[in-house]
Amino acid sequence: MVEQKTIIKRAELLKKVPQSIWALGFVSMFMDISSDFINSLLPIYMSSVLGISVIYIGLIEGIAEALVLMIKIFSGVLSDIIKKRKIFAVMGYGLSACAKLIFPFASSVGVLLSARVIDRLGKGLRDAPRDALLGELAPASIRGLCFGLRQALDNVGAFIGPIIAMITLAIFTHIGHIDHDFRALFWIAVIPAFLSVLLLIIGVKEPKREQNEEEKKEEGSKNVFLDQANNPVTFSFKVLCNFGPRYWLVVAAATVLMFARFSQAFLVLRSTTVGMPFALAPLVIIIMNVVSAISSYYAGYLSDSINRLFFIIAGFIVLVASDIILGYATNPWHLIGGVILWGLHLGLTQGIFDALIVDTTESHVRGSAFGVFNFICGIAIIISNLVAGFMWMHYSPAVTFFVGAGFTVGALVFFVIKLALNHSRLYKK
Fold first, then answer.
1. In a domain, 4, yes or no
2. Which residue from 269, 267, 260 is spatially nearest to 384, judged by alpha carbons?
């Protein structure tokens, strides 16, 4: 009876989720089908076909992420200035869709890097405005659920893409149309990418600014900055420096976690060192994203009634366990255990961080807040990828994950100390 009531309550809450948020979730899903179709094959293609070393794979990923972080901060700020979010999302998703047209021609490192650069530029352009738009669309009482739902649908796409990749790779190999030449497969990824853009244009409605102002008044205004005419300042260095201690606590937590977490490309590469066949390598991404999709939804749902920081701390702990298992892995079953925990860690943190950014900022500077957040985290991701590539090449794959575990433990200690020092400012739900 209790379980039935819980299911009914959850269904009722899902009915309250605005249509545009559902649409944003499916937009993310279709783009992730496309992106993770390619990403599940790309590390093996780079290493086994193009002969790129692991450290250069890390460098390529680092360059791609560098572009993302540089664009994110500007797109977030610009979306605040012109008071429009959707236009940046459309341009970003459109650019990423166009990049998918280049991958089938990527027969050299230069062409491959160009495709990755354009794809990442699109991601950088869309992410901060999209998250700010979702924050404006989401009712405050179910904000965690809305962000968790979008993240869950994003992860659904992220495991459907590798499933399609694995099936088509097996078919092409069986009929003799492909011999480790994955470029013919990349055409398939073009279809869901452009479906994503079409759905965004048709299905997502940007709320009127008057509605945003009403929501802002209802939620309170603890971090609003006014000019001499008592109008809210969209963005300035003063606003940047004074987002508030709760916001910077969230940024600090995410940053130290990003230092400990490197690209999923290393998970795919790890699968090839423990005896998993090339054709089954996408299974790593599939498993990770299935777990992440389920846990993202439930973490978001529960975070509306439980302190969200609880999920962040749990995410740290799970990542440590994942790194240790992946470090000691000697067969595919060990690897799968570590990948399951990696996916759980993502589910416990990704959507929660987004919800926390909305919780701790005001509507008129939210694009800037997401831009700054992503910029700082992106720097940490670049460093973690380069360190992971260096450790892999100069020591061993196992050492790479053990170092990741060490970073995570250090990050967890840092975060707990930070919470202790700022206990009076601790975010409380």
1. no
2. 260
